[in-house]
Amino acid sequence: MCFNNNTLSIKTEHDPRKLINGIQQATLFEQFLALARFSPILPIHDLSSINWDCTWFCLGNDVETPSCHTSFTHNSTFSWASKLLLDELPLLSKLQLRRPDLYLAEWNCVSCGLAPETWSHFWSCPTILPKLVGLKEAIKQALINILTSHDRSPSDGLSATMLFDIDNLDCWLTQPSILSSLHFDLLIRGFVPSSLFQVVKSVSSPPASDSASITTSPTS
């Protein structure tokens, strides 16, 4: 297939509709990343530290409801997850900007009263941070339990090396993410780190010997 105009000629062996769709999706993704709210994650994105395919899958996936059915619970969950990802949670600091007539500027975090209620404050708030640490440990243990029970996991459980790799991922750090590292604050917002994806893939992928037996024809 060949597309022509006065200045450009494009030849492709693929479905032109898929080509145009891919170009459109790439353009929209570029516009998405260009939003000012995402400027802090651009260095992390540039280092390929975010697995975007997995991020989008986790954002919209609903394993409990068939695709032909409507799930109001899933819709509510998707709305909440989208607000997290887009940094649109109605925190007090945002409400003070939107409705200064209702939310006084001098009001601080409703949990500790020590500082304005912003997303970054949560990671130092003496009341909220212990709960986030508990959530992190619960998520980490749930991940280990899922991987341990996976049908492709070793029959004797995850190795000490694998458990060490999981436990030492940067995404479990409760300090706010820095320019080169994705921490728990971005993980909880829905950004899936490439390092976490690789660890999960190394456990759930078939062993090399099994893959070889699948791809190699038996000898006579």
Can you put this structure into words, describing what you see?
The protein has helices at 16-33, 42-46, 52-60, 72-85, 92-98, 119-122, 129-149, 160-167, 184-187, 194-204, 208-215, and strands at 2-4, 9-11. With 220 residues, it is mainly alpha-helical. It has a two-stranded antiparallel ribbon. Residues 209-220 have low confidence and may be disordered.
Quick rundown:
The chain is mainly α and 220 residues long. Among the domains are: 34 residues, no CATH class; 104 residues, no CATH class. The chain is 50% helix and 3% strand.
Topology:
Layout: E1 2-4, E2 9-11, H1 16-33, H2 42-46, H3 52-60, H4 72-85, H5 92-98, H6 119-122, H7 129-149, H8 160-167, H9 184-187, H10 194-204, H11 208-215
What are the defining features of this structure?
220 residues, globular, disordered C terminus, mainly alpha, two-stranded antiparallel ribbon
Average pLDDT:
84
Assembly classification: single chain
Instruction: Write the element-wise H/E pattern from the N-terminal end onward.
Output: EEHHHHHHHHHHH
Rg (CA only): 23 Å
Structural class: mainly alpha
How many E-type strands?
2
What is the count of DSSP helices, taking H or I runs of 4+ residues? 11
Strand content: under 5%
